[in-house]
Fold this sequence. Notes:
- The structure holds two protein chains of two kinds.
- Chain A has helices at 44-51, 74-79, 97-108, 116-130, 145-158, 175-190, 202-208, 231-239, 294-301, 324-329, 339-343, 350-355, 370-383, 400-413, 430-447, 458-464, 487-496, and strands spanning 4-15, 18-29, 33-37, 59-64, 67-68, 82-85, 163-167, 194-199, 211-216, 219-225, 260-267, 271-278, 283-288, 309-314, 317-318, 332-335, 363-364, 367-368, 418-422, 450-454, 467-472, 475-481.
- Chain A is α/β, with parallel strands linked by helices.
- In chain A, the strands form five sheets. A six-stranded mixed beta sheet of chain A has the order 6-7-8-3-9-10, sandwiched between helices.
- In chain A, helix 3 (97-108) packs across helix 4 (116-130), helix 3 packs parallel to helix 5 and helix 4 (116-130) crosses helix 5 (145-158).
- The N and C termini of chain A lie far apart (53 Å).
- Chain B starts with a helix and ends with a helix.
- Chain B is globular and about 65 Å long.
- Chain B has a single domain (10-18, 30-317), classed as ABC transporter involved in vitamin B12 uptake, BtuC (Orthogonal Bundle).
- In chain B, 45% of the residues are buried.
- Chain B has 14 helices and two strands.
- In chain B, 74% of the residues lie in helices and 3% in strands.
- A two-stranded antiparallel sheet of chain B has the order 1-2.
- The chains are: A alpha/beta, B mainly alpha.
- Chains A and B meet through helix 2 and helix 3 of A and helix 9 and helix 10 of B.
Amino acid sequence: MDASLIELDGVGKNFAGIRALDNVTLAVRRGEIHCLAGENGSGKSTIIKIMSGVYQPDEGEILIDGTSARRLTPVESVHHGIQVIYQDFSLFGNLTVAENLALNSFLRESRRLVSWREVRRIGRRALDRLGVDIDLDAEVGALPTSSKQLVAIARALMSDARLIIMDEPTTALTRNEVERLMTIIRAIQRDGIAVLFVSHKIGEMLEIGENLTVMRNGRVVIEGPIVEFDEVSITRHMTGHDISTAIYEGAGDPEAPPRLELKGLTVPGAVEGVDLSLRSGDIIGLSGLIGAGRTDLALALFGMRPHHTGEIRIDGKPVSLRGVSDAIHHRIAYVPEDRLTEGLFLTQSVQRNILASSFDRITRGLVIDRARAEAWTAEMIRAMQIAAPSGSTSVGDLSGGNQQRVVLARWLLTEARILILNGPTVGVDVGSKAEIHRIIRDLTVKRGLAVLMISDDVPELLGNCNEVILMHRGRFVERYRAGSATEEALTDRLRSLR
Amino acid sequence: MTLSLLRRPEAIVAVALLLAMVIIGLVNPAFWSLDNQFGLLRSNVVIGIMALGVLLVMISGGIDVSFPAFAVAAMYLTVKGMVQFNYTGVALPFVAATLIGLILGAFNAFCIRAFRMIPLIVTLGTASVVRGLLLGLVGTSTINVDKMPPQLIDFGKTDIVNLTLADGSRYGLTAMILIYAALALAVHLALRYTMIGRSLYAFGGAPEAAARVGFDTRKTLLFAYCAAGALAGFAGLLHSSMIWLANPRDFVGFELDVIAAVVLGGASIFGGKGSVLGTLLGVFLLVMIKNSLIIMHIDTTWQQVVVGLVIIAATTLTAWRDRMRVA
């Protein structure tokens, strides 16, 4: 018996000569929770767009309820009960919750007039069905992300959905909100509605999924019941190789004077007299709860907390870091937490982004030395393994992992000696993450960098740092040498600080 | 209840309006005379009808600077035609002027949609073309009161009430205010209770999402610019019948006043927000400030400064309000 709701059979899709999907066969059965895993660029979004009728496949067939759906259009897809919750939710921020929920029904019935009583009635029904309580008269733009997502799900359910496709639904949610989403997904399933959970977060898929399909480079590499997989095997299928778990011992010369030395550094209200000694070849990790003072410490070193007190020495000499230009002069580089708003010019090319802090060094008189600009960019694209066709590609078109490499490349070009990384792999998928870690370790050894790595990701710190420091309420409360702490121990200690 | 009433964007304009009235009234008590108030209302009519059209465009996320050109084209062509053919009716000319504006508006929508161009650039272009064609092909001379069709002048003279001042001079409240009120009500109902009206808000708030949920966004765009053109055409002819002449170089600089009034009324320059009530209040506030400057014998050049400052202050305020809401 074939209970497939939608089935892709040998589907292929090309974009301007690039093979986005190759012979993809994927079946979502009625009422199941199916996970679609894959790194960024593996073809997950193309599959979503083919199922929702936005793209037509070049080869192969789409079967809905067992019958071939030729030239599926977005309208037909909706008609078959397929609803997509996009990452941006496609909601109207300027309209109320009730109107957002009701517009679809009104459009489907080709209404010309709006009855506001009806709008509220539909809105109330939609929220009741999902079992959530959101103010119907609130403007959607003023709601938190998690509530917006619930409104989007409620709206999808109102269109007689049989399959809800969720595109990276947990990206912007906190842990508690993820839990609530999981509960809701299970409730949706109890109503006999299938869910296609598209993600690169392995833990969540293991928790919620029944069946799993893993994509890599536009192909399905494996599929099967989720119980047959674990974290390691999914990672291997997604990336095509095992992720190394070796520890970093540090390459610093214990005899040499520290590159960066802090004595009693204090930032009023944030950092309370910390001592630190960071050698060339060291990667020191800094963890702690939000508000522990980590970012303030980093910003003080980058000259953005001019009112700090205490002593800062670089190569043994006391220095004053009262402005960003001081920090750059002492060859300190800072890669901020939110690369999208603080670190990158998204609409500009890879080349301009890489060279953004080095233009003064490649300028002769008043003109930019084009040959040198090209050469430096090419070298960095190669060294950092940035997956961009050329230096003129817009950074906004790259995946998260590649964007992060562009930011790193920029700071490396400034010949930084002290590199401060704040959340270096936030929002980066697992394969790219391992690659970025390898690059950071290599560069630290080869160039003799001194790296301060701030992160919430405990495995990331343990796998890359020769020392991990725990910070709490502005002080260093615990130090671990490489290999001397387990993930559990560190996580437990972090939790105990709460 | 009272709090939610105060939170409405119109409340800010209303409070500003009352405050300004009290201040102007204190400086010059003549402000409160019925004569002056009637005059103010009269000055609201033409600019207000145009503002209703601009409101629709701004809610849809666009902007229109071509409506004064369309208004003058509709007015001049219609009056010229009436003179030419000795036409004596009133209703048909208004229909003609409205249609001229509507067709020109459709052209705006077509350019914006077909060539995916920025509304500001498109409407700047069509404004220039229409004004140029009017002066080049139709005529450059003003049709003065002696040549104006008398029926049109009589129509514009219609008053609701007629009073006599102590010195024997007569004054009244123009009946045109009823037309303005009717149009405002019609636009309000369209925005609030029709799907095409809601599509303006949806499209202005999130154009991509509007297309995804199944709005015919081409129709939305066409509606906004056609309505703006039609209202401008109608207002153009009304203006001519109220001032008893038709000048083919009229309405220069109106775009700024009208847009200022609409923004003042709480419409967002980024689209998706705005209401008829707010626009009515915004228009009244702007007209009142300008008129009061005249009463206080302040030079017209300074009025431009004031209008400019009003635009900057009002947009800053609404942008600030929107940021507050997000935070």
